[in-house]
Amino acid sequence: FRQFSDAGSRKEHVKITSEPKPGFLERLSETSGGMLMGLVTFLLAFYLLFTNEGRALRTAKSLDEGLSLVVPLDSIQSVSQQNEGRLVHLAGALSTSKPLFDPSYGLSIRAVKLKRNVEMYQWVEYEDSKEYEENGEIKKETKYSYNTEWKSEVVNSRNFDREIGHKNPSAMAVESFTAVSPNVQVGSFVLSKGLVDKIDDFKQLSLSHLEDPHADVTRGGDYFYHSDNLRRPEVGDLRVSFFYAGLSGDDPHLGSADKVTVVARQRGDQLVPYHTKSGDVLQILYPGDLSVEEVFQKEHQSNTMKTWALRAAGWLSMFVGISLMTRIFYTLVDWFPVVRDLVNIGLKAFALCVASSLSLLTISAGWLFYRPLWALLLALLSTVPIVVAKSRVLPKKQQ
Q1: 95 C-beta neighbours (distance < 10 Å), count
Q2: CA distances from 96 to 75, 117, 188, 291, 366 (A)
Q3: 158 and 229: one domain?
Q4: How many angstroms separate the CA atoms of 276 and 250, rounded?
Q5: Which residues pair with 76 in a beta bridge?
Q6: pTM
Q7: Residue 281 lies in a domain
Q8: Is 214:281 a contact under the CB 8 Å cutoff?
Q9: What is the DSSP string of 291-325?
Q10: For the stretch 354-386, what's the b/e string if a residue is b when 16 or more beta carbons lie within 10 angstroms of its beta carbon?
């Protein structure tokens, strides 16, 4: 069943599908598949939590080792053989051997990276679904709406529920690309590929000082348009914008060259990765002029944030895994609304307590080889959720 409407350029229609309400055996079969997925998620959580603690401690030790060994350079204009093979710290303006350019649009810039971003005006489909039960059947009402938008990727209209009237081109006539300077330096030192990859603070390039490159291309703001009418583009029209990262020379429109701070190993006139005794690799780059202490403080903060993010992901993975594995108890009683709701609350509380306890135990196991006292403290802390849960159950039994 479909209903169609057209409000301006936005088109929409509604489709309703129905299917018989699944029986007990069918729901039980779906729950069994969910249990298998839950088991995989549950085991993955152990691996994620355990390896994350080892990674975090290894990174922290490597940073402490690097801070104790790093040598600040007095000058970046000359290469001293005394620092060969050592971890060095330097700061200065970026420089490149030659500018990056895009001959198709008559554009050039002295920068580490130049990105051409191409967007095409296309149809986009949106879905909004809701399910409800009616006459013993499960019905799904899906509202499909269509709108035209600028998109960087080709939207495949063949997957639309209604392709007629919403057909997109299968490819773009102009492609996006990112050009990277083959030689990037700070003073007399050449940056390794890993350091160049860290220069990714892209800014949009203003096109106000440029002319239209071709007769079929029109400049509008900071975009080049392949369109007959900028105010009313048609599906298939293109617009092109440019972004740059790491300005490497003084530019009358953009300002002076960007400065960066680097901590890496000196090998001749090159700055390459430094391998620590802890098994980590140090090659650090930050925008601006930072001291040695500021660089390593930022690295420690980044390590802490990453550690807690992975801990949260591991706990959530364990919680979801336990919930999926215990879902079968909910399925067995879902015929009785009151019992079903009570069981659902109990299962969520059980998953919460067990996930918290096992997560703390896994984290403590990861610390066992590095910080035994902290590992013991976490192991004791992991019993708190279980003790609290039992303390609430006993008074209820007595009543």
Answers
A1: 18
A2: 19, 22, 11, 24, 45
A3: yes
A4: 37
A5: none
A6: 0.79
A7: no
A8: no
A9: -HHHHHHHHHHHHHHHHHHHHHHHHHHHHHHHHHH
A10: bbbbbbbbbbbbbbeeeeeeebeebbeebeebe
Flag whether 164 is in a domain: yes
As a whole number of angstroms, the distance between CA 234 and CA 6 comes to: 18
Q: What domain range is 104 assigned to?
A: 80-268
- Distance separating alpha carbons of residues 141 and 16, to the nearest angstrom: 4
218 and 90 within one domain = yes
* Residues 277, 152: Cα–Cα separation, whole Å: 44
Pairing of strands 87-96, 177-180: unpaired
Letter for the amino acid at 188?
S
Ramachandran sector of residue 221 (left: φ over 0; alpha: ψ -120 to 50; beta: rest) = left
Looking at the 3D structure of the chain, how many domains does it have? 2
Tokens 């350029």 sit at which residue? Answer: 9
Q: What is the pLDDT of residues 3-47, one digit of tens each?
A: 333 334 467 878 776 666 555 556 656 667 778 888 899 999 999
Of 121, 58, 88, nearest to 366 by C-alpha is 58
CA dist list (Å): 12 to 9, 143, 158, 301, 307: 10, 7, 17, 48, 45
The stretches of the chain forming alpha helices (DSSP H) are: 24-69, 193-197, 292-325, 327-332, 337-367, 372-381, 384-398
User: Can you give the length of the chain in residues?
Assistant: 399
Which stretches in the chain have pLDDT values below 50?
A: 1-9, 393-394, 396-397
Phi, psi of 146 (to 5 degrees): -130, 135
Q: Is beta strand 203-204 parallel, antiparallel or unpaired with respect to 107-109?
A: unpaired
pLDDT computed for residue 344 by the predictor:
77
Domain boundary among 245, 268, 291: 268
- What DSSP line would sit under 337-383, residue for residue? HHHHHHHHHHHHHHHHHHHHHHHHHHHHHHHTTT-HHHHHHHHHHTT
Contact 288, 92 (CB under 8 A): no
